[in-house]
């Protein structure tokens, strides 16, 4: 590398400071690498900060303490089934193989503490999901930032990557605007950074980038709500496409079915829907007063049915809310979730046929109590309870774009591949910016698992 590059020369440059990028940076530094992180915004974390931070892993002490039987093979089967075979089996298996190790790493190395319970989300065969305490992706990002500070990892904020620097066919650096602002008139300050070992792309997805989504899926709605930050865009991915990097499934976008139109982003309503309604409650078609889907189905299945029905609420009772341990005070104060002393009052508020709704709830309760087969395929768990004890809680349900399933094609060592499926020297990618881990649908809590597993792998192999 030319002598003039030495002032801005590192072993590794990481683009993005979410779960994947920070995992890669920490692992790289702990293995002796000189690493810098480029983050385009004024604060780290990206969408990871506003996620719930849940992580999935099999064969954990937490599962054993609750008598839950699980295995790597079962988690792999669940992910492949959810992905409808569009996953790369080798990458998905790698994530499952190292999921427990990543979970333990988050506790032992980062010091993350988790709520003492094991959750199940749609598409998982058994409970295997763990939530940080306090429940927020910020909890994990904060611990990662502390570790970066402890290790002396440099994080350059407002560092927007405009393009890559190549030496023949090898990626050797990036051109960045080191004074980036969302104001298009901001004065740019361009700097070139160089990497001896390589560059790890960890920029996340593009679920808020309507222009990019519609470029690859002309049938996608022209306007939509999203759980993502509005800065969630595809500019680095587009630069990779310009360099003839291979991509997969760019038309596939996952919606979060458990959110509400009554607030922006994922919000507290998303937590109410995902953590309480999905496993403890029912979804109701307001026009008919009937159930219409397996509430424990995977996100793709549930979203498709909600979008078809359109006017939907999620409904639970006080027993389920109390058992969940959630404090709904803020959600109720903001009227995102509403409380009712009777089903009749609830039905009137949401303009639902009262008699039909009562009949629907009674039928559901009978199925649950007798453990009979649910016509929608919901599997009743021992901890599920009938919906019968007031107050009753309900929320309007509207899906929002949440996660992009497509992205860069990589191998199991996180090398980005070209159009001939050969590794591009010096270029690696991890996390949501890649496109083969989850296939057609991602299971809840598996994103954090993927980010930690693949980020740590990248942080090691890039130094070899």
Give an overview in words.
- The chain contains 16 helices and 18 strands.
- Helix 1 runs parallel beside helix 16 and helix 6 (99-108) packs across helix 16 (446-461).
- Strand 6 and strand 7 form a beta hairpin.
- It is of the alpha+beta class and 464 residues long.
- Strands 1, 2, 5, 6, 7, 8, 17 and 18 form an 8-stranded mixed sheet that branches.
- The protein starts with 8 loop residues before the first strand and ends with a helix.
Keywords:
four-stranded antiparallel sheet, eight-stranded mixed sheet, 16 helices, 464 residues, alpha+beta, 18 strands
Q: Topology of this structure?
A:
Elements: E1 9-15, H1 19-30, E2 35-38, H2 46-50, E3 55-56, H3 61-65, H4 72-82, H5 89-97, H6 99-108, E4 129-130, H7 137-151, E5 154-156, E6 160-167, E7 170-177, E8 190-201, H8 210-216, H9 235-242, E9 247-248, E10 253-256, H10 267-280, E11 282-285, H11 299-309, E12 312-317, H12 318-324, H13 329-333, E13 338-340, H14 343-349, H15 354-370, E14 392-397, E15 400-404, E16 407-408, E17 415-417, E18 423-429, H16 446-461
Parallel strand pairs: 1-2, 1-8, 2-5, 8-18
Antiparallel strand pairs: 3-4, 6-7, 7-8, 9-16, 10-15, 11-12, 12-14, 13-14, 17-18
Helix pairs in contact: 1-7, 1-16, 4-5, 6-16
The helix tally amounts to: 16
Contiguous uncertain segments of 5+ residues:
none
User: Main sheet, how many strands, which sense, barrel?
Assistant: 8 strands, mixed
The assigned structural class equals alpha+beta
What's the total count of β strands?
18
Helix content: 25-40%
How much is the average pLDDT?
Answer: 96
Judging from the principal axes of the Cα atoms, what is the shape? elongated
Spatial separation of the terminal alpha carbons: 18 Å
**Strand composition percent:** 15-25%
Rg: 23 Å
